[in-house]
Specification:
- The structure holds 2 protein chains of 2 kinds.
- Chain A is of the alpha/beta class.
- Chain A has a domain of 135 residues: P-loop containing nucleotide triphosphate hydrolases (Rossmann fold, 3-Layer(aba) Sandwich).
- Chain A contains 9 helices and 9 strands.
- In chain A, strand 8 and strand 9 form a beta hairpin.
- Chain B is built from 12 helices and 1 strand; from the N terminus they run βαααααααααααα.
- The longest helix of chain B has 28 residues.
- Chain B has one domain.
- The two termini of chain B are 31 Å apart.
- The chains are: A alpha/beta, B mainly alpha.
- Chains A and B meet through strand 4 and helix 4 of A and strand 1, helix 2, helix 5 and helix 12 of B.
């Protein structure tokens, strides 16, 4: 992998997210082999064929501190992959990603919840999944419970919760320690309007304190209303980049 | 060297994954504790006998085997119940730890696809869970030993070293299996079959004396044999195991762990889209 001098790279501007020429290649077997035996036979016969799929192709973006940044595009355009690259879930095959600050992935609220454990136990489990220390979770426990409005259900197993309650709890834990960067992937589409409003208010409040937010959504109104700048991804490439309303206009014409 | 931090991420950081994973695991040690607590809690939550199951299972097997060997085969072995039970505790630790390291990796695939976490937490937590369950099961073992008049001597302190070595051996193998399971979906059932064969190749539930001496080399190439021996000797003979046991036990632990950690971490950036 390419080596660059980290310090000059980071101090260049007040950007907190730097994506530089990032490409992501998924290398998968051309056929789904059923098991080890078949795999071994193919390997011996040198007939293992791989298919390369470039989910992202030479993407460069820079997001400044305190910015609300939107990512739009069709399904399969690479929006979620880009967010996962920022969340360090997927390592770029080429190029470089630098994230300056504590990153909260709101990719799938409550992905780490366990149905048999109580709300209380799940708060500690999910907090640890996001890399929070035990002390950090203890200090914010009351606030998490209050925000997610589950006070009377806190000792009940999570399987008894409604979808809305789970979403609220997931959002509350993920944003309990003020993140510097929030990666938001369609999470606002779950839960009722009141919950969505509540999440937006909190995100706005963090933004005013200097947090940066990257939003992936299919709602064009939301991008125009919330984001200053946006990127339009098409087939893993940047189709347009710039002021949010201009990008949305360009994208909407193709729909 | 760049320290791992939750407050900074540079994808082109030049730290080798072998080292980076250790740093990340240290930063996420709270998660290991949470995973261990979760497995213990969920295992016992819906069961009335609770923790007792950990102890009942090997106890019932021990009773059955004692009856089989002493009544049917007429083999007389001193303290056979303690022999069987101690062997079983080591075996249960080894087999459940390695297979649940692999299982946790598969069952957590949705998590791995969605958020970042050091992937070795699953195998490490499996070893942690195994150790907790192992501690629970020491209670019935001590009771049975005392009832049958086996003296508990100070040599038992070497159990700490035995379990440390066995933990590293199991972790290394668990990591190798976890890597394999990402690429081959049927690894778990295959391993379960292998475990059954492996159990019969290890003197856990039968006395070593019933195996002809010309086959004893099969024990000597079997890593688990040394951990079983190192565990039994202080209990049954009251003595500290010799170098003939410690050297292979340490060697297998170190080599397996290092290979497992290397293979697992060098592939770990692929797991998020492969699993």
């Amino acid at each position: 992998m390419m080596q660059t001098k980290p310090d000059s790279f980071i101090n260049s501007e007040d950007s907190v997210i730097r994506v530089e020429g990032v490409s992501v290649r998924y290398r998968v077997l051309r056929e789904q082999l059923s098991g080890i035996k078949e795999y071994a036979i193919r390997w011996l016969q040198r007939r293992l064929q791989y298919r390369d799929f470039w989910a992202l192709n030479d993407i460069s973006i820079e997001v400044r501190r305190g910015e609300f940044f939107g990512i739009v595009g069709r399904n399969g355009a690479g929006k979620s992959t880009l967010l996962k690259v920022m969340a360090r879930v997927i390592r770029p095959t080429l190029g470089r990603v630098v994230m300056l600050g504590r990153t909260a992935p709101l990719l799938e609220l409550g992905a780490g919840f366990h149905p048999e454990l109580t709300g209380r136990e799940n708060i500690f489990l999910n907090g640890a999944l996001l890399g929070l220390s035990h002390t950090e979770i203890v200090q914010r426990f009351e606030e998490i419970v209050a925000f997610s409005e589950i006070v009377e259900f806190i000792e009940a197993p999570l399987r008894t919760y409604s979808t809305g309650m789970v979403a609220r709890l997931g959002f509350a834990v993920a944003t309990s320690v003020r993140p510097d960067i929030m990666l938001v992937d369609e999470v606002l589409s779950v839960g009722d309007a009141q919950f969505q409003e509540k999440c937006l208010v909190r995100m706005r409040a963090f933004q005013e304190q200097g947090a940066t937010i990257v939003l992936v959504t299919h709602s064009m109104e939301r991008v125009v209303a919330l984001c200053e700048r946006a990127i339009w991804l098409d087939g893993g490439k940047v189709a347009a980049q710039g002021e949010a309303s201009a990008v949305v206009n360009q994208y909407s014409r193709t729909l | 060297m760049k320290q791992f931090s939750v407050n900074f991420y540079d994808s082109s950081s030049v730290v080798h994954p072998f080292v980076e994973e250790i740093q990340a695991l240290m930063a996420y040690r709270g998660l290991v504790v949470q995973f261990v607590a979760r497995s213990i809690k969920t295992r016992y939550k819906r069961s009335i006998l609770g923790v007792a199951w950990t102890m009942l299972n090997p106890l019932l097997t021990m009773i059955a085997l004692t009856v089989v060997f002493s009544q049917l085969f007429r083999i007389q072995i001193e303290n056979f119940p303690v022999y069987v039970l101690s062997g079983q505790l080591v075996w249960i630790f080894f087999s459940t730890t390695t297979s649940s390291a692999m299982g946790e990796m598969i069952w957590s695939s949705e998590l791995i696809k969605r958020i970042y976490l050091p992937k070795s937490v699953f195998a490490v937590a499996a070893v942690g869970t195994g150790l907790v369950n192992f501690l629970f099961s020491l209670l019935p073992l001590s009771v049975i030993a005392l009832v049958l008049g086996v003296e508990l001597r100070s040599a038992l302190f070497t159990w700490l070293l035995t379990m440390l070595l066995l933990s590293f051996f199991s972790l290394g193998l668990g990591l190798l299996l976890s890597t394999a399971t990402v690429y081959f979906a049927d690894m778990l059932p295959v391993y379960n079959v292998l475990l059954t064969i492996w159990l019969y190749l290890t003197p856990v539930i039968y006395p070593m004396e019933i195996v002809p001496t010309q086959w004893h080399w099969l024990f000597r190439i079997n890593p688990v044999y040394y951990y079983v021996e190192a565990f039994r000797e202080p209990l049954l003979a009251g003595s500290i195991p010799g170098w003939g046991t410690w050297l292979p036990a340490t060697g297998f632990a170190l080599v397996t762990f290092l290979i497992g950690w290397f293979v697992f971490t060098s592939r770990s950036s692929e797991y998020a889209y492969r699993i």
